[in-house]
Amino acid sequence: MGICWGSSADNPTPTTTGRLSSVISQTTSNTASTSISRGSRFSASSGDEVFPNGQILPAPDLRIFSFAELKSATKNFRPEMVLGEGGFGKVFKGWLDEKTPGKSGSGTLIAVKKLNSESLQGFEEWQSEVNFLGRLSHPNLVRLLGYCWEDQELLLIYEFMQKGSLENHLFGRGSSVQSLEWSIRLKIAIGAAKGLSFLHTSDKQVIYRDFKASNILLDGSYTAKISDFGLAKLGPSASKSHVTTRVMGTYGYAAPEYVATGHLYVKSDVYGFGVVLVEILTGLRALDQNRPSGQHTLVDWVKPHLSERRKLKNIMDHRLEGKYPSKAAFRIAQLALKCLEPEPRNRPSMKEVVETLEQIESINEKPTEPKNRSTHHTTRRHRQQPVHQRSPLAPKHEVGRGYQTPPRVR
Q1: 351 labeled part of a ligand binding site
Q2: Which Gene3D superfamilies match (predicted)?
Q3: Annotated catalytic sites, by residue?
Q4: Does the residue 99 lie in any domain?
Q5: Is the pTM of this model over 0.90?
Q6: Which of 68, 276, 337, 359 is 20 to 30 A (C-alpha) from 146?
Q7: Of 395 and 314, which is predicted with more confidence?
């Protein structure tokens, strides 16, 4: 979670009792009254295996962790256990000891997000995360296992995602970072699209509002799972096309109509998905102030290249080494263009996006070896230094190995 746009009028006042009021509310004055009981427990059997198409629970079903338990799991929150860091605070790798008789070292890997006491938006986003993700279950959403609230300590506990974030794989450098081959990139795009589609087509539409590469986490088999629901909102009522709210999001990903007016549409998420598709194709960040003038914002720069195969080839990620099916890449570029339409009504639904991506995958076109790569292009791309983008209006972003969040802006 990062630094946000706007004032605090959009969020409820933090409560001081042993219960949390829900932040899930309709656009009218009627607020849903779900809450979290300190006695509720997480059931390991109530997951995606039972509901492969996802489900929304009537109330959060989460385990309540003690602070002492999490201190032990993270070795007292040691620096070497840090997975990443954002505006909310640090995320630590942890190991839950299940105390199984006769089994040494048995347990479960977890990710523990610990609130920074100086976080500007911490409590509200922590509360929103619990009330949204605590009720949502889908194979392409990160599972929230539980939370901790003791004195001033606020923590969230998630399933551990072995491969970290899509952001790290696309933009990270070094021997520990593995580039993604074409088939895996397509698999990730489909999984993330399914997660968004589930949110958009549920009985109570959920607008994610902060879709970006750092919020797409990957498990051991590169299954994509959407994380970080701190900015999620319920969609508009049946009689309305949008909800009006303070503008919050991340430079380079937020839909133009939302930034300009504060009108948030379900298809505002589709725009963000289009940006991520372009990142998957190019291996370049949505926003990079270190690129030459005119190229800082990825979408503005590469849009003209997406409509022609010859131009598309010039901006494809050099780490693919030309090993990708050109027809499939072009079809995805065309899909990205549709997602990036200026008018929300002209963008496809996420259900349509999923169908298109699955059709592209089903063709199973064999990646072709490049006949001749442009030396100039390869040199230019290799000269680019790894940059973790920073808004001139946002504080310096500290980068981890996964679970990290690019800066949001005010």
Answers
A1: no
A2: Phosphorylase Kinase, domain 1, Transferase(Phosphotransferase) domain 1
A3: 210
A4: yes
A5: no
A6: 276
A7: 314
